[in-house]
Amino acid sequence: MKTSVVFSSKTGNTQQLANAVAAALPKQELLYTGAPNEAALAADRLYIGFWTDKGSCNREIAAFLKQVKGKEVFLFGTAGFGGDAAYFEKVLTAVKKHLDRSNTVIGTYMCQGKMPQSVRERYVKMQASPLPIPNLDSLIENFDRAATHPDAEDLHRLTAAVKQMESR
After folding, report:
1. CA 125, 128, 129 angle in degrees (round to 5)?
2. Distance between CA 73 and CA 42 in Å, rounded?
3. pTM of this prediction?
4. Cα–Cα dist 36/7, whole Å
5. Which backbone phi and psi does 120 adopt, to 5 degrees?
6. CA angle 159, 163, 167 (to 5 degrees)
7. Chain segment 94-116, per-residue pLDDT in tens
């Protein structure tokens, strides 16, 4: 079965995941790896990676998902906010809405991803404002937790999920 790995990465997090996916796939079946491209659609199975933007996938991947028809799809992504399975599931539900019903989602995977330092700096500035928002401390804690992700365990879990899918 021919496979493609399609991804969009703003900060390098999703690219790390995509590289792990591609490394876990049988080389003779890997047709395409890279940014959204029509060439990827020649594969039977697509591994599609995204970064989270406003609770869904980024625009580039949303547009690509609309082109996918009659394929097996494995969705994977990163989110700066997260570490919570319920939040990840909410994001994945939103992402799946971009897919045509003729596709079959065969698997999903999400993990936290580091955010640009400018995000933390913005939170710290907001703390000094006369009326700081009440959850700033938790946002800074989340930022600090995310700083090491995706980590080796994230990549291992994704690789295991891909290998399990490929062994079916």
Report:
1. 95
2. 13
3. 0.90
4. 6
5. -65, -40
6. 175
7. 999 999 999 999 999 999 998 88
